[in-house]
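Appendix B. Chain record.
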Amino acid sequence: MPRLGTSILLGIENFAVFTLYVSGYGLGSFETSVALAAGYLSIAASQFLFGWISDHVSTRLGKRKPFIIALAPLLGVSFVFLLLPGLVLPDLDDKAALFYWMLGWDVVFRASYAVTTPYQAWMAEQFEAGDRPKVSQLQNVFNYIGNGLMAILSLVVFTQVTDKIEADASTIPPELLCIAVVFSALLVSLFYVAALALPVEPVREARSGPLQGLKGVVGNKNFLRVVLMQGVSGFGWSITTTVMLTYAEEVLQLSTLEYVVVAALLLLGILVFLQLWRKHMEKRGKKPALLKIFAIAAAFLPITLLGLVPMESKLLLGIVFILGVSMVLGGWFLLPYILYADIADDDDKRTGELQAGAYVGFPSIFLNICQAIGVLLLGTITSLPAIGGASYSLGYVLWGPVVSGILVVSWWYTRRYVTLDFAWESKV
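Structure tokens predicted for this chain:
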């Protein structure tokens, strides 16, 4: 249930905040990218810290629940202030103040998003390996219902909100205020329901201290290879999720009705491809599925170049673009829930110690640094000048081929060096 709220909030932050601040509040694309990059760095530290600590604490509520109870409200509050600087800032034409406001609240938002790390550690602690694809699918059903709602809000409501703010930066559109408050309250409520209703994770005595346990995690070579694979591909995925909405608005220039059609297809495509990828993983294994995801995405994303081709209507291109992106993101987002739980389980079978929190949280250090570099790269690309009389930067069509190249490297590295399917899984 909590994945519904986190998907909506993080989805809006990923898909709409860049557009909201650049097109609405008039902050430069590079400054906006710097603020988003700082947010990625903050979550890099906090997800590891709270996951690692939660492995080695003991309370009557267990290891994970105290962190969930403390961090969820902070995540909701920071989301409200991130979307609505006009609630406090007296002059939104002061771009320096606006930049620091976005920087500060995006850092707090991303840091408190670490509430998902102790929550996700339950995957390895409460479910066997054979159940995890189904568990991940159920989590992702809530994720993608949230993503569908977020997509509709981003593609329809946020487009209109951005236009209103662009016309008058001092205005606080009531629909934006309602979205921020309602979905923040929903997120906090769902996390509290989970914390109150779910059982305390099984108690296991730690065989080593926090530093010794961390040394074992860092010494897991296959784990580090998986983290590197995710980091390299994360350059591409962070660019894709950040700029997709802006591409649809700036390049495809879809009407409001066309946005509704595209948003509906996005939700439908995500739900369909989620089921298809889950079945494919169960039948063929996780690594073959991941290699297909990389290959399909690398072949598909250069479609953004078609935005340069004059067309009377770009609705068909928008439909194809959205369905293709939903296909590859649907498969990609299904995997991380399973990978770290399986690797933690594999380590447990070798060492007798299950450190689910560390295995979930440690990768955030490297992955979010890579995502930060990704959005900085996006800021650089989208700062390129327009060509051929276009009203948008050349970078808004070049990002697809750039991501494609990144994913080709990710495919090669995964195929050659990474283990995702373990021999003991067939016996579970």
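Further analysis of this model is presented in Appendix C.
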